[in-house]
Amino acid sequence: MKQMHLAAHFPGVNSTTVWADPRSGSQIDFASFEHLARTAERGKFDFFFLAEGLRLREHNGRIHDLDVVGRPESLTLLNALAAVTDRLGLAATVNATFNEPYELARRLATLDHLSEGRAAWNVVTSSDAFTGENFRRGGYLDRADRYTRAAEFVATARELWDSWTPDGTPRPFAHTGRHFDISGEFTVPRSPQGHPVVIQAGDSDEGREFAASAADVIFTRHGTLEAGQAFYADVKARLAKYGRRPGDLTIMPGVTVVLGDTDAEAQENATEIRHLQVSPQNALLALEQVWGRDLSSYDPDGPLPDIDPDPESDLVQGRVKVADPLAVAAKWRALSEAKGLSIRQTVVEATARQSFIGSPRTVATELEAFVEAEAADGFILVPHLTPGGLDDFVDRVVPLLQERGSFRSEYTGTTLRSHLGHAEPVWKG
Fold first, then answer.
1. CA distance linking residue 319 with residue 127, whole number of Å
2. Dihedral, CA atoms, 290, 291, 295, 300, nearest 10 degrees?
3. Across 35-39, 178-182, 317-321, least confident range
4. GO molecular function terms here (predicted)?
5. Bigger pLDDT: 313 vs 136
6. b/e per residue, 99-134, with b = 16+ CB within 10 A?
7. CA separation (Å) from 388 to 22, 26, 43?
């Protein structure tokens, strides 16, 4: 049986978290992050994963309600978590558009040393001028350039990490390219796992190619087994052109898990959770993100609007824009008409993340089936509660996976690369 990989995502400031639940805790107190990280390590997970936004989003000219609690800076937080964990990988989302290679490579290498080889960087990009207003360069970067800059950024960071020899000798570095022209000496020795692990999140053709060329892990989202298999086969097939093997890239979709003592109870729990996540207000906000129009006068329990989306709308700022709102609206209308769904019911069905719902035994079996069918190498779990949303999975599902031999019972290495089964990068001096 194939061994699966598991990671934990701190759910963050979004509509995943059920804020109304009395067990929902702080999104900024260190205790929340520590609880979730310790739970993930108790479950022998590969890594703990933090998302990050660089600006509070706006909706119809106002700060988006779910952003007002803020979010600490990821690398600072992970350095603190390194002191209260021993084996768990620590992954930070950091933007390659509004940072510089030398500074970020140094911060990541520092985390890798402080954690003894457990650091990871989730590389994201932005072509959003709204976000760029927080930075000196503003929105200068064309959308077509964001992956070329990211690819050169990662390559440059790796040159910096390789500028120290494995035996601890520093050497000068120099990089000249389209986006960066730097030279000097790097201040941090080669890290315990050679390089921090690189994660990429994205589903576009450019994103898949970037992952195949440069990433160690890809964080993706797919709603069905078939979609997962198609993505898996496509991305793995791209590796050969870069001299890489299928095992060099670990594919981990983000998923939710809802448990119950029986499958029927779990389904009831899942229905309740989805309706708490998609309140009437959140349903209209989600609809407005597609339609690009102020729909506040519509009844969430009524039918979808009969007007078309505005593809040029700037109603929503700071979010990734819907690529083809007309096509998405048509898909939502078809779903609504086929099942007789209201606005809220349509959003509940159309925006759900890939979910595994059932008794612990049912969920364990389905997770294993996805991995055996090559729809994933593992999963990044996104709990709906902070900070205790991972507890039941670790207590009730992980032991079943361990008994069946599909997940580790103990860590066999000390670095994140060892958890993933990836070799240390060959030094390129």
1. 11
2. -50
3. 317-321
4. monooxygenase activity
5. 313
6. eebbebbbbbbbbbbbbebbbbbbbbbbbbebbbee
7. 11, 11, 13
Q: Which residues pair with 191 in a beta bridge?
A: 194
Whether pLDDT at 69 is above 90: no
The two structure tokens encoding residue 102: 């030398």
Per residue in 82-98, pLDDT tens? 999 999 999 999 999 88
Instruction: Express the helix, strand and coil content of the chain in percent, nearest 5 each.
Output: 40, 15, 45
pLDDT of residue 392: 98
Instruction: Indicate the SS3 state at residue 71.
Output: coil
Backbone angles phi, psi at 267, to 5 degrees: -65, -40
Locate 256 and state its tokens.
């939710």
**Cα 384 from Cα 136, distance rounded (Å):** 36
Please give the CATH superfamily to which domain 5-262+355-420 belongs: Luciferase-like domain (3.20.20.30)
| Integer Cα distance of 87 and 102 in angstroms | 27
Q: What is the pLDDT of residues 25-57, one digit of tens each?
A: 888 899 999 999 999 999 999 999 998 888 888
pLDDT tens-digit map of 100-153: 999 999 999 999 999 999 999 999 888 677 888 888 766 667 777 888 899 999
Task: Say how far apart CA 156 and CA 68 lie, in whole Å.
Answer: 35
Q: Which ranges of 162-224 does DSSP label H, i.e. alpha helix?
A: 205-214
Model confidence at 368: pLDDT above 70: yes
Strand order in the sheet with 316-317: 62-63, 58-59, 316-317
Q: For the chain, which residues make up each domain, given as ranges?
A: 5-262+355-420, 279-350
